[in-house]
Design brief:
single chain; mainly alpha; two-stranded antiparallel ribbon; 5 strands; hydrolase activity, acting on carbon-nitrogen (but not peptide) bonds, in linear amides; Pup_ligase/deamidase; peptidase activity; ATP binding
Length: about 260
C-alpha cells in the first residue's frame, strides 16, 4: 500500500472547493494509473504554480516543455476532459461521478467567464470578493483589517467565521446538510482504519495507549500490560475489523 502526500494546497471550507479538490486529485491519479494522463509537462513547475496562484484573473499563461503556453484553467480542463473520457471508456461512470463532473465543468466554465461568478462556490473567490469590497471602500489591501480577513474567514468558531456568515446569508452554496457532516465527524466509514481506531477510543478512552497508522495499543487495566494490535488495510476486509471490535465490545471489561 502506498501513500501520496499532496503538500501545496489550501485548507478548504466550501463544500464545492473540498469536493473538487479531492475528486480532481482522484481523477488525475486514475489517469496516471491507467497510463492515460495528458501529455502536459510544465517547463518550470514551481514557478508556474506561483504565477497561476498569484493571478486572480486566471489569464496568466505558463510554458510547457513542448512550447505551448496554457492558462491554469486550460490545463485543468484538459485533465477534466481526459478523466471523464477515461471513466466512460472504463464503464465506471456512476451517478455520483456524473454529478462531480457536472460541477467540475460548471466551475471551470464560470471561472473562464468571470472568476467572481464563483464566489458562492469557491473559498478563494469568496475571499477575493470580500477583499475587493474593502478595496472599493478605499481600504488598502495591506490594512490589518484586510489581512485579518483571511484568518477570520476560516475561523472554526461559527460565531466568528466569515465563511459561516456567508452560508447563513445564503451567499455560499452547500452540498451536504450540516447534520450529515456532524455525523461523519463522529462516525467514519467502516471500510477505513479510522473506523476501528475511533471505535476503540469510544469504548476505552482511558485504555488506548496509542493509535497509529498501522498499530493500535491498548493497556489492560488489571495487569497494566500493553496489547498491540496490527491494523491491516481495512478496505480489503472491513468485516474482519467489525468482528474484532464486536468481540471486544462483548468483553467490555478490557482488552484481552
Amino acid at each position: 500500500m502506498a501513500r501520496l502526500h499532496v503538500i501545496p494546497g489550501d485548507a478548504t471550507l466550501s463544500h464545492t472547493s473540498t469536493l473538487l479538490k479531492f475528486a480532481s486529485a482522484a481523477a488525475v491519479l486514475t489517469l496516471i494509473e491507467h497510463d492515460a494522463a495528458p501529455a502536459l509537462e510544465l517547463a518550470a513547475p514551481v514557478h508556474a504554480m506561483q504565477l497561476i496562484s498569484r493571478d486572480p484573473s486566471l489569464t496568466t499563461r505558463v510554458e510547457l516543455t513542448d512550447g505551448r503556453r496554457l492558462t491554469g484553467l486550460e490545463i485543468q480542463r484538459i485533465y477534466a476532459e481526459a478523466a471523464r473520457e477515461r471513466a466512460e471508456a472504463l464503464g465506471a461512470l456512476q451517478p455520483r461521478d456524473e454529478e462531480i463532473f457536472r460541477i467540475w465543468f460548471e466551475v471551470l466554465d464560470g471561472l473562464a467567464r468571470d472568476p467572481l461568478s464563483q464566489a458562492d462556490r469557491l473559498d478563494w473567490v469568496a475571499k477575493y470578493a470580500l477583499i475587493r469590497g474593502y478595496a472599493q471602500r478605499g481600504i488598502d489591501v495591506g490594512h490589518p483589517k484586510v489581512q485579518a480577513l483571511d484568518l477570520q474567514y476560516a475561523d472554526l468558531r461559527p460565531e466568528r467565521s466569515l465563511y459561516a456568515k456567508l452560508v447563513a446569508l445564503g451567499r455560499m452554496r452547500t452540498l451536504v446538510p450540516q447534520e450529515r457532516i456532524e455525523e461523519a465527524v463522529r462516525t467514519p466509514p467502516e471500510e477505513t482504519r479510522a473506523w476501528l481506531r475511533g471505535r476503540l477510543i469510544v469504548l476505552w478512552p482511558d485504555q488506548v495507549h496509542s493509535a497509529g497508522w498501522e498499530v493500535l495499543a491498548l493497556r489492560d487495566p488489571d495487569t497494566d500490560r500493553v496489547h498491540r494490535w496490527v491494523v491491516d488495510d481495512a478496505a480489503r476486509d472491513p468485516g474482519r475489523d467489525r468482528a474484532r471490535a464486536g468481540d471486544l465490545t462483548e468483553r467490555r471489561g478490557g482488552p484481552a
